[in-house]
Every structure is written in structure tokens, then in C-alpha cells.
Design goal:
This protein is of the alpha+beta class and 426 residues long. The chain is 30% helix and 13% strand. The chain has 8 helices and 11 strands. Helix 1 packs across helix 3. The longest helix is centred in the N-terminal third of the chain and has 49 residues. It starts with a helix and ends in a 5-residue tail after the last strand.
Length: 426
């Protein structure tokens, strides 16, 4: 009996402790619900920003599950005034979800016990009910605490005992060889980069980028001694500097003997004005280049060269690029020159030399020809027969009929003389 009475008393004490714990938990939940009433609006805004769902929203840990709205990270303001909010993968419109008016939402808020924990997801167009865990998570974030309630920011330090009893693990062992060997993965990456840089597409992209940079780069190639322009600054095109003449045999350290001055030529060179001297130095011969002394006029010549570059006016000469074929006259086509004789109708054969002049009579019945053999022949045009030959003794340069057909007179030029002929008379 005594042991049974002791067991019954222990059970009664445990029941009393459980009841007390239940009362404390109920009081804590009531206090939490009262506190939730003040922070409910702020919690809903935070949950909407985090995209959290409640118990009514199906949860899934699968990353392959497609969301309700597949438009991606696109601002919804772009679709204001349209009935759709985007397009799916197949190009079909995603219609906007039906939204209740403010009056219906207010009435539903009074009837729905979870209205204080309901937010609207504008991206997916659905209403989401926050769970107690979501509200607690939002409240912790608003209070700048860690999201996890069981997270310990200050964990206890786990002591580590070294086998040899040292506080600081020091070792004199040589380093391993593995860290000094080239990585095969890095070698593969480098090889892929090298192959990509050698590709034709990469070379074209580099060339296009260089052309674009060259276009965007300003051309500051204006001579420093030019007058500054009054209006808009227009950078002039770069002008090449005057070239220095190349050294010849006289500038050699061991020139040929014919380039060396004789005593008379040396004296004449010294008496000449420096501006009239063909050479600015006296050629000398040395056995080796190491025996050549320093040139005395080096600094003076460099200074004069700088003066030439500074004071010499230069201008760009435009080079004419003319096609030689464009200088030839344009010949008309044969079709434009018609009608013209296209076949041989008669031949006049009889001169032993080159024919230099031909003249037709005013009537058109006879023809005179002058040749280098010193003869003038009278031809009948219709038959091509030679009617008469006049030998003048020298080359006949020209022959012409008189324009008056009644006289039947012709003139021939022989050397410096002009002779008159009557070819139709016997």
C-alpha cells in the first residue's frame, strides 16, 4: 500500500506540472498573438519582399518545379494597361489574374480569420497566407537577428589536442611536391583559352574592337608652332618631316682614295663659304672604326636639324591619281559612223612609193595622187584607170585641185616649190 500510494502521488505531481506548463504555453501564445496584431502589416510587407508562403501554399524543395508565372525578371510596370503580364516559353500570353475590388476585399478581410496574414504576390498573381514560422522569421529579420531561431552565433570553442603535446604545431618536414606541379585542370583551361584566342571569330572581334577604338580616339596631330584657330578646332593631318639624306662613300671611316681631298682641294675647301661647300666635312681614312674620333660638328648638325624641323614650312601636296585609260579620247562606235564604205569597190595601183596626198576633182570624175616616188598620177574614179603620169623629179608632198571646176587646174608641192598643173590637157 505504501509503495502504491507513493506511485500515485508521483503521477499526480507530474500531471500538475504538465498542466502548469500547458497554462504557461497558452499564456505565451496569447501574448504572441496580441503582439502579432501590431506587427502584422509590417510582416506582410516583409513576406511579400521575401516571397514566403504560408500553410495553404504548397511547398516544394524541388528546383525543377516551374513557378506559376514564367515571365522571368521583367518589371510588371511594362504591362500596365494590358490584359496579360508576359509570355510563356511557347510564346502564348499569360493573362493577368482576376483581382477583387476593394469593397470585396474589405468584406473578405472581416470574414477570413487569416486576413491579417494574407499578402498578394504580384509576380504570380495569387494570394499567399503566411504561416507562423514565416511571421516569426520576418519578425526576427526586422529586429536584425539571425533567421534561424536555433542558430548560435557564439559557439563554444572545440579544443584540439596535438598528439605530441605541442601548443603550436611546428614541423621541419620539407614541403610536398604536389603544390609545385602544374595542375592538369588549369592546363586544360589555358589550352581552351589559347584555342579560343586563335579562333577566327576572336580575331575578327579583336580587329573590330581596334577599329572602334581608333574611330573613338581623337587625332591630336597639330603642329605646335601653328597659329591657334579662332573658331572650331580642326586637327590637321600629320605632315611627314623632311628626310635626311643617306650617307655616301665620303662619310665612310675608310672611303676610297678618289673621295679623299688633295692638299690643293683641302685648301680650296677651307677658303669656300660654309654655305657653298659641297660637303660639311673633310673625308678622312682610318684603319679601324675604333680609331675614328668624335665628330666635332655633331651637336651643331643636330641643332640645325632641329631648326629645320621647327622653322621649315611644310605643306601636304595632293597627289593626282589619274587612270591612263581616262586620258584617251572616247572613240565612237562603228554603228554611229554609218553609212560608210564596207566593201572594196575599186583599186588604184601604179605608184612605186608611198602615197602622200590625194585630191578629188570638183566634178568627181578624176582623182590626183602624189607619191614619194616623185610622180603625180591622174586616175579615172569610175574605172580606176591611170590616164596620165607627171614626173616632177622629187618627192611630192601635197597635191590639190582648184575649187573652180571650169579651170581644171591643180597645184603640187615639190620640196620648197609649188607647181601648177593642167592634168586634163594633152
Amino acid at each position: 500500500l505504501g509503495s502504491r500510494w507513493a506511485d500515485d502521488s508521483e503521477e499526480e505531481e507530474e500531471e500538475e506540472e504538465a498542466a502548469a506548463a500547458a497554462l504557461v504555453a497558452a499564456a505565451a501564445d496569447a501574448a504572441a498573438e496580441e503582439e502579432d496584431g501590431d506587427d502584422e502589416a509590417e510582416a506582410r510587407r516583409g513576406a511579400a519582399a521575401l516571397g514566403l508562403g504560408g500553410s495553404e501554399q504548397p511547398e516544394s524543395d524541388s528546383e525543377d518545379e516551374m513557378p506559376l508565372n514564367t515571365i522571368g525578371n521583367v518589371p510588371l510596370e511594362w504591362y500596365d494597361g494590358f490584359e496579360h503580364v508576359g509570355y510563356d516559353l511557347e510564346g502564348r500570353k499569360i493573362m493577368r489574374g482576376a483581382r477583387t475590388d476593394e469593397l470585396d476585399a474589405l468584406i473578405k478581410r472581416f470574414d477570413d480569420p487569416d486576413a491579417n496574414r494574407t499578402i498578394h504576390d504580384a509576380l504570380h498573381g495569387v494570394d499567399v497566407v503566411l504561416s507562423q514560422e514565416d511571421v516569426a522569421l520576418i519578425r526576427r529579420l526586422q529586429r536584425r537577428r539571425y533567421p534561424g531561431a536555433t542558430f548560435d552565433p557564439y559557439p563554444e570553442t572545440v579544443p584540439f589536442d596535438f598528439p605530441d603535446g605541442k601548443v603550436h604545431p611546428l614541423s621541419s618536414a620539407p614541403p610536398r611536391k604536389a603544390p609545385f606541379l602544374p595542375s592538369k585542370d588549369e592546363a586544360k583551361k589555358v589550352m581552351r583559352l589559347v584555342m579560343a584566342m586563335r579562333s577566327e571569330q576572336y580575331q575578327r572581334s579583336v580587329a573590330n574592337r581596334r577599329l572602334q577604338e581608333a574611330k573613338e580616339r581623337p587625332d591630336y596631330q597639330q603642329l605646335i608652332w601653328d597659329e591657334p584657330p579662332e573658331g572650331e578646332v580642326r586637327h590637321r593631318k600629320r605632315l611627314p618631316a623632311p628626310k635626311v639624306s643617306l650617307p655616301g662613300n665620303a662619310e665612310s671611316y675608310n672611303p676610297p682614295k678618289e673621295y679623299l681631298f688633295t692638299p690643293e682641294e683641302a685648301k680650296a675647301w677651307e677658303k669656300m663659304d660654309p654655305a657653298d661647300r659641297p660637303l660639311g666635312f673633310v673625308p678622312q681614312a682610318y684603319d679601324a672604326m675604333r680609331k675614328v674620333p668624335q665628330y666635332d660638328g655633331l651637336i651643331r648638325e643636330r641643332f640645325e636639324r632641329c631648326l629645320d624641323l621647327y622653322l621649315c614650312p611644310r605643306e601636304a601636296k595632293t597627289r593626282l591619281d589619274i587612270d591612263p585609260d581616262s586620258l584617251l579620247p572616247q572613240l565612237p562606235s562603228p554603228a554611229e559612223l554609218r553609212p560608210f564604205p564596207e566593201r572594196l569597190s575599186s583599186r588604184f595601183v601604179g605608184h612605186a612609193g608611198r602615197v602622200l596626198s590625194v585630191s578629188v576633182s570638183p566634178s568627181g570624175e578624176h582623182l590626183l595622187s602624189a607619191s614619194a616616188d616623185g610622180t603625180v598620177k591622174l586616175w579615172e574614179v569610175e574605172t580606176g584607170r591611170c590616164e596620165r603620169t607627171c614626173s616632177l623629179g622629187a618627192e611630192v608632198r601635197s597635191v590639190r585641185w582648184c575649187p573652180n571646176g571650169e579651170t581644171a587646174v591643180a597645184a603640187a608641192v615639190v620640196g620648197v616649190k609649188m607647181l601648177l598643173l593642167l592634168p586634163l590637157r594633152e
